[in-house]
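User: My instructor asked us to take a sequence, write out its structure as tokens, and then describe one feature of it. I'm not sure where to start. Here is the sequence I was given:
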Amino acid sequence: MQWMLDFTVAFLAAAAGALGIGGGAVLLLYLTAFAGVAQMTAQGMNLVFFLPVAAVAVFFHARAKLIDYKAALFCGGFGILGTAAGFWLARSMDETLLARSFALLLLALGLRELFARPEKHRSSSSSPPKHPRRGG
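Assistant: Let's start with the prediction itself. The structure tokens for your sequence are:
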């Protein structure tokens, strides 16, 4: 029966990741809170899990012409630097502090989404805005 729960969580995390809404949060919460996996190990498992998921999502988004490659490369470059800095910071933190920091981040993001005022969408063009949350 455990395999069914694992499958469900993996499926939901992959679907959320493909939608671009942070499926890693689903997977990390499950691994740390319910499966008893240490935070750093769960983060590593999450990264390996999302390599094939991200590849499939990129394929479909590229096929639908939904990728701004110039912006993606720019963000990706700084993302690599941020990843290195984040890994160094995470490795230097106590495991409990890391887990609590992650929980606070999720709480802050959840509250922001829960209480954010919806923005009016521009309807002047038929193409969707580049970033719906910011309107363009």
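For the description part of your assignment, you could build on this observation: The chain has a mean pLDDT of 84. Try explaining in your own words what that tells you about the chain.
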